[in-house]
Design goal:
By secondary structure, the protein is of the alpha/beta class. Helices cover 42% and strands 21% of the residues. Strands 5-6-7-3-8-9 form a 6-stranded mixed beta sheet, sandwiched between helices. The chain has a 6-stranded mixed beta sheet with strand order 14-17-18-12-19-20, sandwiched between helices.
């Protein structure tokens, strides 16, 4: 077995009076694909900083092979000291490295290299930092939430880039699909300790749940043992005091163990406030368009959204996703077309811009609006301390200013603030950013149980698969295509990834290819037969596809019969492919017939 490139042993770190890391171990071997998982606040980012050598622990050993190159992507990179993005990325190259790789990476991440560092947005700065750590192709790459601020095409490109690299990878991410596609081993950081699973993230959650169940059984055994020992103490200690001092000491140890045990943190308790019932039709858009200058952001778009729908809006950054949401919710007027909303619509939005939170305000003031210690949730008044605990905040954090919160804590605070408002149309813009996996699970459950309608923008493929009933994909040039099901269903219906062409474009390209075929004097018998029969086959498949779409559009089906959803989705994919093949064949034969007849 090769020697580890990086070793952390018995690492301890205390923040204030709380032990954050308590004997942590981490070993990174050549070519390893390792994901680091744990709750927000468990110390994942801190551990990665120690691994990178940018933070000294209170105690413990860090050893990196002297010739190993290590690159680290923090959540908030510092780009100061460089005039532009190209200089910044090239500054991370080692002597002899190819500077053309810096140009390539910047281009793939949507940057030119000429952007001034002082004028960068947070997302652009993070993309530049990602290019800088990838450029030298290091032996160890330490990435803390690399998909933040990346759109879906960039995320899928990054997956391919990381899969192709030969170096080792240590990865923190809230994106389940990203973790599952890249990791081969998992390290769980929980209550200051690390445990390792020699499988990728796909095996982590079942393994974690098993460990927690075993821990709970052990705790119950400990409780029963304490009860037994207390019973003996009450009734037997007088007669056998001297020769049973050891049993008294054992009881003391058991009680100390119980007091000092650092239990698994509590669960987030989401409760959603719903306003009065909306009508069946929530939103109907009729041929709406919106342009800025010469750029069409939304072009001739129509849709009908019913109560209970969960709609995911995805696409590249700048493709018009947020504009479409604003049009649908009537926060923006279209240039043409109309949006009709149903009756009694109460809109609640969650904008993931941290700038919406006043950094000087306390948690209590954010939730109560600065009015006392009560917050209205679901039409009932609750004490703010109780409501804070639903979102994993401790009572002593009530007076904590927002500016000292971690990214994950700010995300939870925004959720708490938004979900306290009564509404029946919930609009979530990148709700998964900075949430830990356990909180994501509960957010997914909340969306599933929400009695109203949900519109959400997300680049998290797994989250989309778990929550939405339909996808609106921004194709570009203002065009949006609707697909039934989640992200994986959309990919299956398109016949490829998000870069695949929709059916309409495939058909448009089919006819020109046919015209390039060599001329023939007449159609064969089989060609004539196919030309006559194909329209009927296409009509039959179209009716079947419409029926499948209608059945899959029923949101109750996803909870009632998941196996039927899978069966229907598989058949829909096959029927779409059959119809596309039939249409392409008919177009080729029709073009050939016109060529032969001179039309």
């Amino acid at each position: 077995m090769p020697a580890p490139l990086l070793t952390l042993q018995d690492v301890h770190l205390t923040i204030g009076t709380t032990p954050l890391l308590d004997g942590v171990e981490l070993f990174v071997e050549p070519g390893e694909r390792l994901c680091l998982v744990g709750r927000n606040g468990s110390g994942k980012s801190t551990l990665l900083r120690i691994a990178a050598g940018t933070l000294e622990p209170d105690k413990g050993r860090r050893f990196a092979q002297p010739d190993a190159t290590i690159r680290y992507l923090p959540q908030e990179p510092d780009l100061s000291g460089y005039p532009d993005t190209l200089a910044y990325v090239a500054g991370g190259l080692a002597p002899g490295d190819d500077v053309s790789r810096a140009h390539y990476l910047l281009g793939m991440l949507g940057l030119s290299g000429s952007e001034s560092i002082d004028a960068l947005s947070g997302g652009q700065a993070r993309r530049a930092a990602l290019a800088r750590v990838l450029a030298p192709q290091p032996d160890i790459l330490l990435l803390d939430e690399p998909t933040n601020h990346l759109d879906l095409p960039a995320i899928e490109w990054l997956e391919g880039e990381l899969n192709a690299m030969s170096g080792a990878l240590v990865l923190i991410s809230h994106d389940r699909r990203f973790l599952g596609n890249l990791s081969r081993a998992t390290v769980w950081l929980d209550r200051g300790k690390t445990q390792r699973l020699d499988r990728g993230f796909s095996g982590y959650e079942a393994w974690r749940d098993q460990l927690l169940e075993e821990e709970e059984r052990d705790r119950q055994k400990l409780n029963r043992k304490i009860v037994a020992e207390e019973h003996w103490v009450r009734y037997g200690v007088t007669a056998r005091r001297k020769r049973n001092v050891r049993r008294m000491a054992l009881l003391g140890e058991l009680r100390r163990e119980r007091r000092e045990a650092r239990r698994q943190l509590g669960q987030v308790n989401f409760s959603v406030s719903e306003a009065g019932n909306a009508g069946t039709r929530v939103i109907e858009a009729r041929n709406i368009s919106k342009s800025y200058g010469d750029k069409a952001v939304v072009a001739d778009f129509s849709t009908r959204i019913l109560r209970g729908d969960r709609i995911g809006v995805i696409g590249s950054n700048g493709a018009g996703k947020t504009t479409l949401l604003k049009l649908l919710t009537k926060r923006l007027e279209p240039d043409s077309g109309e949006v009709i909303q149903g009756t009694n619509i109460a809109l609640v939005t969650l904008d993931q811009s941290r700038a919406l939170l006043d950094g000087q305000a306390s948690l209590r003031d954010v939730l109560t609006g600065g009015r006392g210690d009560r917050v209205e949730v679901g039409g009932q008044m609750r004490h703010v301390m109780s409501y804070m605990q639903d979102f994993l905040f401790l009572p002593e954090q009530a007076g904590t200013p927002v500016e000292v919160l971690s990214g994950g804590e700010r995300a939870r605070l925004l959720l708490a603030k938004a979900l306290a408002k009564p509404g029946n149309l919930l609009v979530l813009d990148e709700p998964t950013n900075d949430l830990d996996l356990e909180t994501l699970d509960l957010l997914e459950e909340m969306i599933d149980e929400y009695p109203g309608t949900v519109l959400l923008v997300s680049h998290d493929r797994d989250f989309l698969d778990r929550t939405v009933t339909a996808i609106l994909y921004a194709e570009g040039d203002g065009r949006f295509t609707e697909y039934a099901g989640g992200y994986s269903d959309m990919v299956a219906q398109r016949g490829g990834g998000i870069e695949a062409k929709p059916e309409k474009e495939k058909k448009e390209k089919a006819a020109p290819r046919a015209k390039s075929d060599a001329p023939r004097k007449k159609l064969s018998f089989n060609d004539k037969h196919a030309l006559e029969k194909l329209p009927g086959q296409i009509d039959k498949l179209t009716k079947e596809i419409e029926k499948l779409h209608a059945e899959l559009a029923d949101p109750a089906l996803y909870a009632k019969d998941p196996s039927r959803v899978t069966k229907l989705s598989d058949r829909l994919t096959a029927a779409e492919a059959e119809r596309t093949a039939a249409e392409d064949r008919w177009l080729e034969l029709e073009a050939l017939r016109e060529e032969i007849e001179g039309k």
